[in-house]
Amino acid sequence: MRSSLQLQSELAPSRRPNHVMHAFLAEVRYELIANWRQLDFAMPTVLFPAFFYLFFGVFFGKGSGLATYLVATYGAFGVIGTGLLGFGVGIAVARESGELRLKRVTPAPPAALIGARLVTALWFSAFILFELFVLAAVLADVRFERGQWLALAIILLIGTLPFGALGLAIGTRVSAKGAPAIINLLYLPSAFLSGLWIPITMLPEFLQQLALFMPPYHLAQLALGVIGLDAGHPWQLHVGVLAGITVVAGIVAMRGIRR
Amino acid sequence: MRNSAPEQPDRVFAPPASKRFANIFGIGIFPLLAITIVLLPTPTQRVDATPDSFAIVNTRVFDGERTWQRADVLVSDGRIKAIAEELELPAGVETIDGTGKTLLPGLLDAHVHSWGDARADAVRFGVTTLLDQFTSPAELQKARADREAGGATDRADLFSAGVLATVDGGHGTQFGIPVDTLAGPAEAEAWVAARKSEGSDWIKLVVEPGWGRQLATLDQVTVRAVINAAHQQGLLAVVHASRLEDALAVVEMGADGLVHVWRDQVPNAEQVKIIRDAGIFVIPTLVVMEGMVDPAPSLALADGPLGGRLSPFQRDTLMQRFPESARVEWQVVLDSVRLLSEAGVPILAGSDAPNPSTAMGLSLHRELALLTSAGLTPEAALTAGTSRAATSFGVPDRGRIVAGALADLILIAGDPTTDISHSHRIAKIWKAGQPIDPKPTSTTKPLDTSVAAAPEDTFLADFENGLQSRFGRGWVPTTDKRMGGKSEVELEVRNGVLHIAGEIQAGGMFPWAGAMVFPGDTPMSAVDFSSHQEIRFRTRGDGRRYSVMVFSGNTQGIPASRPFTPGDDWSTIVLPFDDFGGADPGMLRGISFSAVDPPGAFSLEIDDVEIR
């Protein structure tokens, strides 16, 4: 394995743009293949939101505002999962197995590696949204204007980014064994407290206040804003928080990768 | 989530099955999501219909506030039943395809003066509601009765201030409508109550010191008293003011709206802020002011796509000119409106039709365009002519395309939300769900368009043979009675001179009484005098102002006119045809010598009338 990679390295003498693109595309392809072959890991990420939605949205909430609300929040829940877990756990495993160090000797630039993971995460996010939208429309009779469906998809796809950065930052600091546990410990409670599983207005008042400090809350509010079910904070606040997370987590992650 | 790919290094470089998966499915998820979004259901409204229901489908809709790029609108029983991006229409409903077109709410003109055929004339241009700022109580009561009767109509609805608040001899008293003038603040309460009992929908006041001339006007104490009385009796109070100073004064007094923008100076930032904070609305009436500066753009409208909808009367008002003395600083007016709209002052579209250079209905389209030259976006201009006018004056059920509103609609073959000039491309108009015929149905007979050659003789009349003229049909009396007035006149030939005597009575909008001569063999038949230059006659009289009116061309209604003032001694008056704006000597039909306002008795002598 090592020899073949060295060979590849020799065959690719420089990082000309087409080589970078080639490396990036190759990375994307292998990331997807890798995930396809390890469905045991990818499945929960992809199926949980749909599963939850089927239970709470379709069985309990059909025909009510709940079914509508939960399309946005389980969408957020899904893309946050692909961001945090896909990046976080993935990078921790890659780091510990030596793969990261190995990749560093290949001509593929670090940006191609990160970019490939991002495309992979977006792939999963898109798949989750596809599932949720179809379930909501077909089984829960949810109806949005065309522009609302589109805005939901775009906001949630872009919303993968800050949580990918956050996952990356965590993944570069914890062990491969600890990563899933730690990330889930952050992911699941904050998702609940941000009103992703049940409407935030059903939580006690002080928890609703606390939600302002939860990153998922801000993505969920942006998505809910599209369908007029947000809490009414200015959208600039949510975008600002998410952009801040992306930048800070991005810096932390870059330092972690170089370590 | 990984760490399995490099198990078999050689396969990494050629993984046929996985590669296919990655290429097809891997990239395919994004198009799949995109296609899903296109196919996902959008809200549909199931609606009931009545036999007269119809729907305009697949059309762009400006609903009075915002634009729907694609929507369906269902109309039932003269009202809008439903609007949605997609309506699930009941079977059998007539549908009108609006692809590439734009549906607008019927327009509201927030400043008109209505009489005669105004309401029918307006609706042919999509102006389905008139907010009148001065008319006789009779017009107002007729309109109110029609409005309250409801049902199908082929005329615009009219709401009005009725008689305006002014002083004896002030602006508003010169039009011949009897005006109950105010002498002081003590009369305010009773005066407003009288308007309310006549059916006035709001109160209009005039603060007009005379455009540079001296004109009596209401004093500030009385203005304040009338505004307060209006508010106490639950009516809005809007004000005519042509100076910034007066506008600011009435803003301070709590007026609700200005029916013109001032025309003397551009306000400073602080003044704009005062106006904005007062929450007052402004109807700039740019089109009537443009007519004083440059009538050409309004005249050009007659040759545009809407020209065929003009009645002869509308053509005439469009071709009339303000006197030279009517001046306006055009840039001041435009800049003032720009500052107001930038500050967020509600702007309403109003034309002040049918003043000279305007035509009822048509001129509102020009007003919308002028509002965009003053910085409003096309959507803001449309809002000014629809929902904003309706909400500012509190007239219900119109100005918006929303379930429950009146089905006053205009279908435009274009997109006026991005290019306001498209408002002229009217494809169809509905008033309360009834389609409107674009052709004017004039109450007068159409004119004979044949033209006779001019005689050799230039002497039209020497009064040696009674009321016979030397050629043509001869002399007849003419008064405003044919337009609802009450003025009187008698003609008598004594000693080879025509004596015209009578009395101008208030009551019509344009009072007149005098003598008319027809140069053709039948009344109003056309004679070609295109190679002739002028009208010449001798006259003497009582020193009041008279008008020579030239009836010509293919139009009917108020003709081109020039004033003259005969004195005690005989004098010869020469009036070149070129001085009669809009007159066409190539189709001369009649010439009249008439007294006009102010009301009162008159006496005039005419002799030796020539067309040279």
Structure summary, number of beta strands of chain B:
30
Our count of domains of chain B comes out at: 3
Per the principal axes of the C-alpha atoms, what is the gross shape of chain A?
A: globular
Radius of gyration of chain A from the CA trace?
19 Å
**Total discrete domains of chain A:** 1
Question: Describe the biggest sheet of chain B?
Answer: 8 strands, mixed
**Structure annotation, total helices of chain B:** 15
Tally of extended strands of chain A? Answer: 0
How would you state the average pLDDT of chain B, rounded? 88
CATH superfamily of the largest domain in chain B: Metal-dependent hydrolases
Quaternary structure of the protein: heterodimer
CATH topology of the largest domain in chain B, what is it called?
A: TIM Barrel
Summarize model confidence as the mean pLDDT of chain A. Answer: 84
Q: Name the helicity range of chain B.
A: 25-40%
Unreliable stretches of chain B, pLDDT < 50, 5 or more residues? Answer: 1-17
Radius of gyration of chain B: 30 Å
Return residue spans of chain A where pLDDT drops below 50 for at least 5 consecutive residues: 1-14
Distance between the termini of chain B: 103 Å
Query: What is the end-to-end distance of chain A?
Result: 24 Å
What does this structure look like?
The complex is a heterodimer of chains A (259) and B (612). With 259 residues, chain A is mainly alpha-helical. Chain A has one domain (39-89, 125-258). Chain A contains eleven helices and no strands. In chain A, helix 10 (215-226) crosses helix 11. The radius of gyration of chain A is 19 Å and the shape is globular. The relative contact order of chain A is 0.13. Chain B is of the alpha/beta class. Chain B folds into three domains: 5-39, no CATH class; 107-398, TIM Barrel, CATH 3.20.20.140; 451-611, Sandwich (Jelly Rolls). In chain B, 25% of the residues lie in helices and 27% in strands. Chain B has 15 helices and 30 strands. In chain B, the strands form seven sheets. In chain B, strands 2, 3, 4, 6, 7, 15, 16 and 17 form an eight-stranded mixed beta sheet that branches. In chain B, strand 13 (257-258), helix 8 (269-278) and strand 14 (281-282) form a beta-alpha-beta unit. In chain B, helix 5 (188-198) crosses helix 6 and helix 13 (362-373) crosses helix 14. Chain B is globular. The chains are: A mainly alpha (259), B alpha/beta (612). The interface between A and B is medium-sized, with 39 and 29 residues.
